[in-house]
Amino acid sequence: MQQVIIDCDPGIDDALALEFAIKSKELEVLAITVVAGNAPVDIGVENTFKVLERCDRLDIPVYRGAEIPLERPNVSAQDTHGMDGFGESGIVRQSKVQPQKETAEEFLTNFFSEKRDVGILALGPLTNIALAIQLNPKLGQNIQRFVTMGGTYKSHGNCSPVAEYNYWCDPDAAKMVYESLGSTIEMVGLDVTREIVFSPAILEYCRRINPEAYEYLRKLTRFYFDFHWQYEHLLGCVINDPLAVACYISSEICNGFDSYVEVETQGISIGQTLVDRYDFWQKEPNARILETVDTKEFFTQFLTVLLDAPEATIASDLNLLKLG
Ligand code: BDR
Ligand code: CA
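# calcium ion complex -> structure
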């Protein structure tokens, strides 16, 4: 069992990732920190509690984090995730649980003031992590692992021709994390997450296996489906963040390479990850870039957990149905 702290901006795919991580037998989620990104931070906190209530895990502490990126105004992705950040799904929560008194950056700073056998899984803009590094420059030495959904190597961006949303939203934070974390960053970028399409066929399969989970997934992803159709003529939706969970559980689900990475903070390439694969800059690698992914293995793991079904059944159905 690996212990992890999740930093996120829920967000439809963050919500799926949180449920995947919380219900996974391989992970113990110790705390959740929330950052402004897909939606303003208070909406993200609210959505985190919706997921915790669904998972019956309101005992997991939630910390409210940064309201805005380090040096820029927040540009939310409510066009993608809905004004409620939850796909305009109408899903509400019953409980009145509130976030902890400490802020996200205070919590991260204090928690990692000593060496821990605990990693961070970052699913949103890296503002909270950068603020924590500013408060505690040793943070990187004290975390066991750092996996981030963000950036892109060869695939095109989703906010500009070259930039992925999380790093585009707060490029200064991303730059600081890549420059000063001091431990290898596992970059789960668009090269691999774009392969993870939650299709209408997979959704229909969910209905056959677990009607209650299907109903939730249908409501949550409808807006995301419409967005992908409108902008990319894609049937279904790309669920980025759950792949970062799968990578955290087992890095073997993706292949990649080590490289030095720098994040652009200015101009038309703002937010771009420059991946020096061929070592032009002669700098020590600071990241592992994931390049290919076993999508069938991903969907087997993901659906086994979200549909609460036997892994062997899901694996053989996905093979027969040629899904994933
Ligand atoms: C990332 O941006 C957000 O919209 C998603 O939640 C994901 O973390 C993809 O670019
Ligand atoms: Ca996210």
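# post-check
The CA atoms of residues 255 and 292 lie 5 Å apart.
The chain has 14 helices and eleven strands.
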